[in-house]
Amino acid sequence: MPYKVLQICGRVRTDTIERRPRATDGLTPKSLPTGATRRSVEPPFIGGSTTQRGDHMPEFMDVHTNMPGVTSEALMEAHQADLDIQDDEGVVFKHAWADPTSGHVFCLSEGPSADAVRRIHERTGHPADEIHEITVTA
Questions:
Q1: For the stretch 5-31, what's the b/e string if a residue is b when 16 or more beta carbons lie within 10 angstroms of its beta carbon?
Q2: C-beta neighbour count of 59 within 10 angstroms
Q3: Using H for helix, E for strand and C for coil, what is the string for the chain?
Q4: What pTM does this model have?
Q5: What is the pLDDT of residues 26-64, one digit of tens each?
């Protein structure tokens, strides 16, 4: 359903913006299967995205196993270091998680190859011990 943009840069506009239809449009809580949510009935997403040229961009999960005691500040600093140079290799770092007790850090990214992800991590001083391409998600 279109909605009005009420104010942009201090001026009222009467334009409408159409949003793309979703697989769950028209579903109400009463029409969903028992235990289902709008999100759970959406079509499955297979990892990665497409580039502007229409090429598939693979998605990767990498694992760092030697970062015991990592703090949220240190994780954010390492993640920012990756973000600062990710364009050099055509990689997009999306998110990072850490378990300070085990010293494991997990990074989700998209890029042309696992080697491109590896090179960014090596240049920023925290090489990944494992890099896995994500080919199926639920």
A1: eeeeeeeeeeeeeeeeeeebeebeeee
A2: 21
A3: CCEECCEECCEECCCEECCCCCCCCCCCCCCCCCCCCCHHHCCCCCCCEECCCCCEECEEEEEECCCCCCCHHHHHHHHHHHHHHHHHCCCEEEEEEEECCCCEEEEEEECCCHHHHHHHHHHCCCCCCEEEEECCCC
A4: 0.62
A5: 545 555 455 554 444 334 444 555 555 556 799 999 999
